Each structure stands twice: as C-alpha cells, then as structure tokens.
Amino acid sequence: MNMNSTPKKSSKKKIRIKTRVFVPLVFVIAILLITYIFPRQGSFNYTFTEGRPWQYGLLTAPFDFPIYKPADLLKNEQDSILQYYEPYFVINEGVKINALANFDADANLDTRLSELPPEYKIYIRKRLNEIYDNGIMRSEDFDRISSSRTGALRLKKGNVAESRNTNTFFTIRSAYESVLNDTPEGIYDNVLKSANINEYISENIIYDSETSEKAREEFIQQVDISRGMVQQGQRIIDQGEIVDSRTYNILSSLRQVYDERSGGAAKSTWRIVGQFILVLFMFLSFYMYLLFFRPSEYRNRKHVVFMLLLIVIFVGLTALTVRFDLFSVYIIPFTILTILIRTFIDSRTALFASIITIILSALMVPYSFEFVVLEISATMVSIFMLKELSERSQLIRSSFFILFTYTTVYLGLIMYHEGSVTEAEWVMLIYFLINFIFIMFSYSLVYLVEKSFGFISGVTLVELSNINKPLLKELSEKAPGTFQHSLQVSNLGMAAAAKLGANASLIRTGALYHDVGKMMNPAFFTENQAPGMNPHAGLPFEESARIIINHVKDGVKIAQKHKIPQQIIDFIETHHGTSMPKYFYISWKNANMGKEVNEAAFRYPGPNPFTKETAIMMMADAVEASSRSLSEYTEKALREQVDKIIDSQVEEGYFKLAPITFRDIQTVKNVFVEKLMTIYHSRIAYPELKAPAN
User: Fold this and answer.
1) Cα–Cα distance between 478 and 528 in angstroms, integer?
2) Residue 326 Cα to chain centre, angstroms
3) Which residues are CB-neighbours of 416 under 8 A, at least 6 positions away?
4) How many CB atoms are closer than 10 A to CB 538?
C-alpha cells in the first residue's frame, strides 16, 4: 500500500538514479550502526543484579577461577599501602655548578657584587655550596611529601637510593632566608639583600617520574587482587535464588575472566567480523525482499528510511539494555515496530522487518530461543488483530491480545521445559504488563510518524472523511452538486478498491476532496447549475476551458491552505490527469475550422495517475459524471457508457504510470456497472387509493 506521492515525470529519471545510490547507502549505514552497538561481552551472556533473583538455570563453574576483590575494597587496600610509598628524586649536579660559576663571574664583572667586601663574597659562596649540597626542592613537591604519612622521599645517587626526610631539604624561599638569617658576626643582612642572592638559587632535587611510577606499581602489586578460588564444577547459583553480595562478586569475577579469555586483538577482530557478517546477511535479506517483492517500497526513500530507522532503534535499545543491564528485554515493546510498519506500509513487510529485528536482538540476549518464540508469537498476533488501524479501540484491543499472547506462550514454555507451572518467574508477568502499557501509548507515535515522515494512517483518513469537517462542509454549502458528485465517486471508488485489494479508505477520502477547487466558481460546473442558467454563454471557449481547468490548481491551493496531506492532494492533481475538457475543445475546433489549436490551453496540468488508487479515482470520476447524461439506465446502456469512457482513457495512455493491469480495469468496469445499476434502479409506481363506490 503506497500512500506517498510519486515524482513528476519530468524529474523521474533523476530521482531514480539518486534512489539507486541512496537506498543501498542507507542500508550500509544501518549495518555499520548495528555492528558498532553490538555488545562485546564474549561468551558470558548472563545479566544479573545484586538483590534480584537469578533468571537462569543452575550455573556451575566451567573452570577454576579466582574471586576478585570488589573494586572499592581493592582500591582501599591499595590506598592504604600507598601511604608508605616514597617517590624518587635525583640530584641535578649541573644546577650547583652553573649557579656557582655564575656567582664567580658576577663577583668579578658585576659592580653589584664586585664592590662587596671580600668576606661577604666568601660567605655567600660558602652558603650556596652548603645549600646545594643539602638540596633544594620545588615548594609544591616539598609540601606534598611533607604532608604524607612518611614525610620522606628516596634520593637516588647512582644506583643507590636513600630515604630522606623533607625537613633536610630547602625550598628556594627557605634557602634564601637561611642565607640571610644564619650570618656570622660582622655580616649584615641588608648588605646581603643588595647582592640579589636569589638569582643564584634554583631547584636541584628533581622528581624522577619514571622510577617513581615503576616503584608505585610494584608497591600496588603487593596487594592481592583476589581472595579465594572457585573450583571447576562448583555450584554458583540456581534459578530463583537471590543474588547476594558474595554471589554477585563471584559472578562478576567469572564475567571478568570470560572477558580476559576472549580478549586479544585477533579474537576481538574476528568476533566483530562475525557480528558484521550476521548483521549484513539479515539486512541483505530485507534489501532483497524490498527489491524483488516490494519494488514500490524500495523506490520510496521515506519508507526505506522509516523502516530501517525503526529496526536500528529497537536493536540498539536491546544492545544498550544488555550491555548496561538496564532492565529486562521483555519490557521493550517490539510489537510497536510491527504496528507502525503495518499501519503505514503493509502486513508482509511488517512481519519481515519484525523477524529481522527479533533475530538480531536474539543474538544479544540470554535464552535466545525463549526470546524468539515469545516475540514472534506477539508479532504475528499484532498483525492478525490490527488489520487496519482506523480507531483507537483497535489498538487497545490488540494490546490486550498481545499481553495475553506473551503470558500464555511464556507459561507454555515453562510447562514444556520444567513440567510444572510453579517454576515460572512471576516477575515476567510484570515485564509483560509494562510492555502492554507501552503498546497502549503507541497511538501517539502514529501521529508523530505522520508528521515526521508525511505518512497518512487509517485514523487520519477516517477523520478527514468526516463530512462535518470545515472544508467538506463548506463544499456542501457552496457547491452542493459537486458535493453529491464527490459522494457518488467515493462510493464507486470504494467498491472497486475493495475488489482489487486497494486502499478503499484512501480512495474514499481522496474522492471527497478531489473537486474542492470548484468552490471558487461553482456556477460554472453543470452539477451546480439551475435549469436555464449557463454562465459559459458568451464566453470564449478558451476562457471557459481555463475556468474549468483551474479547479485543479484551485483545489490544490485550498487543500494546502487547510493542511490536507499530500496523499489526498495527489487525487486532486491526478483525477483529470493530462486530459482535456473535450466539450470546449471540440466546440473551439468546430468553430475554427482549419485553424491550428493551442492544445496547452485545453489541457489539464496533470500529472497522470501513478498509483492504483488514483487510477481508480480517475475512472470513477469520469464514469459518474458521464452517467448523468444518459437518457436511460439499462444495464446495456450503462455498460456501453462505462466501456466507452474507460477504454478512451486507456487508449490515451493515462494509466501508463499506474500499477494497474487490464484485468484490474475490467474488474473496475464490472463493479461500476453493478453500482450504477443500483444507484439508477427504477422504482415501482405506487397505486393510488380509490374512493369507495357509492
């Protein structure tokens, strides 16, 4: 069921070329996205939460493995031992040599120092030498180590490192103050200050990051990361048991060992390649299905993006749920995907897309068989129950049946595997109930999808076909004859659509709106004219043709102003295709014998019908209008008229773009004759009551 408009003929080739590139590109993007979000958790396919029951069967240790300490406990123990860790520093001898050399040079060349008395120069040099021998540290390092528990560091001298307390070292500030404060008698600090001694004081105790980090790692390794072992075959937990803190720690340790064993670049790469192949095969199957069995959907880029987006969203949600253990996968309402695709496309495509989504999700979840059985059962029920979404009650009813299916199939699986219903995890019923609530609220998603992708649902068609809608009410008041014509066309089109398996609701709504443009000049159309009134009298044939033709353009403008969906506007544009108002065309030809006619002035703008629904609509419109001119309504007369009108449309090529066959056209003819016979059937004459004889 294709409800979207097809591009105009002039740009069709360009769009087709783009589609050939666009559709495969979208599939490739979807494949890469799902491969990227696939969980990478090796062979440990269990999810568990501390304080919650174990969902799976009996679990025993597949091999010997250590019980790793919890991360917070391990960190506390490492932090405790690191309190006794002493960082490593080295002496930069070059700093002292350069500082003393600079001082000696300035003492001879710089007037600031050369004019000092000799005893001052000797004192300063001696103190600088002593300070550098003790060592000068950065104040940040000094404060950090002084506040540590040991208050010491290890000073490397060659291959030997000795522990030294920080109070044996200077900082630049304390070294400068020491030179000024520890002066012998006869040396005055105000004179020393003028020598700018701070220029010759620099740090020579440098942090050795490489040795320090290596020593720190060795320190941490003294803490044992595990406490105890689990022996192969040892019982860990059974179904229904609560995961306490000890069991949680054991399960976490087993998962960590699995991750370590499955690690390594080679194994990880092959695993990703395997996931890519599986995802590729699933999407390739869907691609081939659209290409060979739903070519109209394959060419519809909005539909392709919509379906692939739904698949990616639900598979991605499953991946996130499994990877981060967010909640049970049975809370995810997979049937919403089925409902949305069924509503806007068709049942087979919905089933195919749902199966692919379920299979890809099953590759991620534990107990894949149970998951597949439950989800496919719910998917099939949702398709059977939701033949056409035209009322909210249908969705509510379907939600209850889906809940019933989940519950029944789950209990059936438990009884099949365990032989008793008492082994069922009743928390699953809560998951199914949450799923049911999500499905109930999916009605709002239908509206969001319509607005986002420009689709149209059965619910919207029902709302639009309400004759109390303002636009239809205005049509019935301004152009009552046109409104009655639209109702009859609607009845004919629906009957034919039901026979061909087309969208009857879409034709009904399109028929009601197809002539709204006649409201602009209702009196110029015969169905709205009173006897003896003809506003075309005296007008040039070209002007009359222009007025008649413009009802299509006017109808499009009116529909767009009232925000009518494009799928309905398609019926307004195509119900005359590129045909001509032949009455005025032939009249002009007869009045202008031998002159060349400007056919563009007598031709509707089109386009011609491009869907089965618009083709039926064009036939119904022409047949209903022409049937009013018949002098008698016998079956023979009606059939001749129907054949004449529709055969003429076929010969002029108005249905070349529509996916409709000659057999379909013959079926439409038969339906029209049957319906017209019913509409124009003769009534019996009622007898008059005779007066009693005197």
Assistant:
1) 9
2) 19
3) none
4) 8
